[in-house]
Amino acid sequence: MGAVVIWGLSYIVMKAATTDYPQLLFQFWRYAAVTAIFAAAFHRTLRLIPAHVWKIGLLRLGLANFVLGIFSIYAVQHTTPTRVVVINGLIIGVVPLLRWIHERIKPARHEGWAIGIALFAIALLFEPQDRFVQLGDVLAFVGMIGYAYSIVLTNRLLATDRASVMQVSFLGVAGCAAYFTVAAVIYVWFSPGGLEIGALLTQPKTIAGIAYMILFVSLAANLLQVIGQRRLPPVTVSILFCLEPAVTAALDYSLLGNPPSVRVTLCGIVLIGATVVAALQNGRRGVAKERQDLGI
């Protein structure tokens, strides 16, 4: 739940911090810095990562995080943060589908009920006049696919490949950093401003945004999500992240003074009910699991 709160605020931060700075370079500096921090602080446990886990983590989990990172930051420029997280809520239907495709695992009965309740809650957020798909909606939807795939891959690395929390967290950000490095090289090749270092140093708002994304999103929220996925199944995790619209709306009200609509309020209440239903059969199971260290 802590990761949900941090992610809910992140879309507001990204939109504000990239008003006068290239979105792609914003993400590049963020992931490059996080990768360096992980490598310096946890280099001992990183040496123990098997070759096949490196491959899955860097190439596939990194790509999933890159898709989420690149499309979501451009999506918030073409629509509102609340609308982006509403579309992210569709992971409740995509995660079980991806899990069935990759692992042939169907949702349990109580998870199926929770999925239905969550989809009803997400449907409440779409206004009757929303008949046309906007560019921001398309970008957010593609980012959501990466979001859902990262949840499925994280579960596979933790449960099947027995990677530690720290190893999975590092591979996710390092792989994403590698893709953003390639994208940044292409950007610099065609852009006369290069990496825009001078512009970055003159924009404290952008620097503060990068710092927030590094400390709270890429480090704190990333670790919280992976730790949560060690104890919870992917479907429950996806339902918890469906709470983002309600969290973002609450932050939008407390920070910017924009009161939430009746639809957003109802959505938050219904999603809490879906989370309770999903957790009914998983609570005891999660407590019974062996508590493993972070792999430090």
From TrEMBL:
Residues covered by the EamA domain: 2-126, 135-276
Any single GO CC term annotated in Swiss-Prot or TrEMBL for this entry: plasma membrane
Bilayer topology: Multi-pass membrane protein
Protein's cellular compartments: Cell membrane
Domain of life of the source: Bacteria
InterPro entries per UniProt: Diverse_Substrate_Transporter (IPR051258), EamA_dom (IPR000620), EmrE-like (IPR037185)
Transmembrane helix in keyword set: yes
Coiled coil: none
Keywords: Cell membrane, Membrane, Transmembrane, Transmembrane helix
Regions crossing the membrane: 28-46, 58-76, 82-101, 108-126, 138-158, 170-190, 210-228, 235-256, 262-280
PANTHER family per UniProt: EAMA DOMAIN-CONTAINING PROTEIN, OS03G0707200 PROTEIN-RELATED
Family (UniProt): Belongs to the EamA transporter family.
Protein name: DMT family transporter
